[in-house]
Design a protein that fits this description.
The complex is a heterodimer.
Chain A lengths: L1 E10 L2 E11 L4 E5 L6 H8 L7 E6 L2 E2 L4 H7 E4 L11 H11 L4 H14 L15 H13 L5 E5 L7 H15 L3 E6 L2 H7 L2 E6 L2 E6 L1 H9 L2 E8 L2 H9 L4 E10 L2 E8 L6 H11 L2 E8 L3 H11 L3
Parallel strand pairs in A: 3-8, 3-9, 6-7, 7-8
Antiparallel strand pairs in A: 1-2, 1-4, 4-5, 9-10, 11-13, 11-14, 12-13
Chain B lengths: L1 H15 L3 H24 L5 H29 L1 H5 L6 H21 L3 H9 L4 H27 L4 H17 L3 H4 L7 H7 L1 H9 L5 H23 L5
Classes of the chains: A alpha/beta, B mainly alpha.
């Protein structure tokens, strides 16, 4: 549905996007993850033909962004960063204006506008001006605007930014519901959001693609192994020597000591179960084990790992 | 064409969604009528020449005030990103916006119709210069508006857009004035006099619409609308 090939864009000396390529299949929900200023918005603006790439090309629903920008825009529903809206228009007037500009036949405008307003839960606000709406309703209006022409592709730039947790869940559910039929790209710098809504994630940092895959794949890709937390009661040096005796452990971190219990974070590249070995080592030595569990790696760790690895 | 009409209506309604439009219209009517009627009874002539003589100077402030918001506001709110990702071409939006402010200006000028009616009641004026004067005012106003739209597309600050528009309009207005023509090298006089916005206005105002004057105004409008389009498109390459 969307194919991006080697796109680059510079703003003066800043390399906003460097050589990014990816593909999105029909019906997929793709998440862009990255710190602020990573190039997420720039990539989206290139895809919606708001700005042009310096090099590289992309196609949306079979139309090339350089050759057929108007057709590309026709296929896309777009919610730009910070959700800009015409503050002095009426809510209904605004959605109608977008519907007309989106070439919806005159006879269908009314029913389509009503449909999309119902979908986004805006019925209670119909008589208001855009400027009078609360933040949550403005965000819904931004989505309504993007959905009014029933586009094949939706591009949403930080759709839940600045909302309260309750509203975030509502918008997220809305996106999930829409995502069953449409191809969606959304960006965020909030991890739970991406793992909650997306089938696939691209991690972007400083304009470069640093990782991609399903949320699960990314989690295992980051360390490729496991992290075990252990609490052991015993003499520090000997316990440490004992842990070093387990050769599959690649990294042993002493986290601290309280009441004679030493806590360790143990890392390993292998996927074999290591908790047992730790248990037997402790049991053989006659010490005691106060805790032992495998830490699950979440996207947060992957994100920090992938985005800081670059800096080091 | 449909896109242009949609943009036109959105912009045109936008003028009336705040009291600003009414304030513009009323202050324009009050100022021009006042300045004109101050000398009208003294001159004791049933003619609107004084009124049309004022217009290039009053428009100098009115036209930039109409256009200053057009692009600057879109840039400031970020709505330009909504507009430019709709399936329309840049020039369609430029034309739509131009038509909206042009119709607004025409509407304002039409509201001055009590003046010619009064003059006709009081005396027996020559109708040629009156029709010519209005035709010239539409064309001159159109040129000012095209310049103003271009200035608005350069910035996201309305005040800057307003002042830049006045400066460019003023420059184009005075280069055709006798005072300037006397002080430029002889070889440049025909060029300057041709480029001046005011001299063409005066020749149309005599009641004779010459195709050269018409062509001149249409080229000025076309040129600045083209610059406007380039300026809007330049966001892509920055």
């Amino acid at each position: 549905m969307i194919a991006v090939e080697n796109i680059s864009k510079n703003f003066g000396v800043t390399k906003a996007v460097q050589d990014i390529s990816f593909k999105v299949e029909k019906g997929d929900v793709l998440g862009f993850l990255g710190p602020n200023g990573a190039g997420k918005s720039t990539t989206m603006r290139i895809l919606t033909c708001y700005i042009s790439a310096d090099s590289g090309t992309a196609s949306v629903a079979g139309f090339n962004i350089h050759e057929n920008p108007v057709e590309v825009r026709r296929k896309i529903g777009y919610l730009p960063e910070n959700n800009p809206l015409y503050m002095d228009m009426g809510l209904l007037e605004y959605v109608k204006f977008i519907a007309q500009m989106r070439n919806i036949p005159k006879a269908a405008v009314r029913s389509r506008v009503e449909q999309v307003i119902g979908m986004c839960g805006l019925e209670s606000e119909l008589s208001k001006d855009v400027g009078e709406l609360s933040k949550g309703f403005r965000q819904r209006l931004g989505l309504a605007q993007a959905l009014v022409h029933d586009p094949e592709v939706l591009i949403l730039d930080e759709p839940t930014i600045g909302l309260d947790p309750h509203q975030i869940i509502e918008i997220r559910n809305l996106i999930k519901a829409i995502g069953r039929e449409k191809t969606i790209i959304l960006s965020s710098h909030i991890l739970p959001e991406v793992s909650a809504t997306c089938d696939r994630v691209l991690i972007i940092n400083k304009g470069k693609l640093v990782g991609s895959g399903t949320p699960q794949e990314l989690a295992s890709m980051s360390h490729g192994g496991q992290v075990i937390m252990a609490g052991i009661r015993g003499p520090q040096q000997e316990v440490l020597a004992g842990l070093k005796g387990i050769d599959k452990l690649t990294d042993i971190k002493h986290l601290g000591e309280a009441d004679g219990i030493h806590r360790f974070e143990l890392r390993s590249d292998s996927v074999e179960e290591l908790s047992e070995e730790v248990f037997f080592m402790v049991a053989r030595s006659g010490w005691s084990l106060t805790e032992l569990y495998r830490k699950s790696i979440n996207l947060e760790d992957v994100f920090l790992d992938l985005t800081t690895r670059e800096a080091q | 064409m449909k896109n242009i009409i949609n943009i036109f209506w959105k912009e045109f309604k936008g003028y009336f969604s705040s009291p600003v439009a009414y304030i513009f219209i009323i202050s324009f009517l009050v100022v021009t009528t006042w300045l004109y009627s101050r000398t009208f009874f003294l001159a004791n002539q049933a003619s609107l020449r004084g009124f049309f003589g004022l217009l290039p100077w009053v428009f100098l402030f009115l036209a930039p005030a109409i256009t200053m918001r057009s692009w600057a506001e879109e840039k400031k709110l970020g709505t330009i990103e909504i507009l430019m990702t709709l399936p329309v071409k840049e020039w369609e939006i430029v034309i739509g916006k131009f038509l909206a402010c042009f119709v607004f200006l025409v509407l304002t000028l039409c509201l001055t119709c009590p003046l010619p009616i009064t003059v006709m009641l009081l005396g027996n004026p020559d109708l040629g210069p009156i029709w010519g004067g209005y035709a010239g005012a539409f064309l001159l106003g159109g040129a000012y508006l095209a310049i103003g739209l271009f200035a608005s597309s350069l910035t996201e600050n309305q005040i800057v857009a307003f002042i830049v528009a006045i400066i460019i309009c003023f420059a184009f207005l005075i280069i055709g004035e006798t005072f300037v023509l006397m002080n430029v090298p002889q070889a440049l006089v025909p060029v300057f006099s041709y480029l001046g916005l005011g001299s063409h206005f005066q020749s149309i105002g005599r009641g004779v619409i010459d195709s050269r004057d018409l062509l001149y105004y249409l080229s000025v409008i076309g040129f600045f609308l083209y610059l406007n389009q380039v300026s809007v498109e330049s966001r892509k390459w920055k």
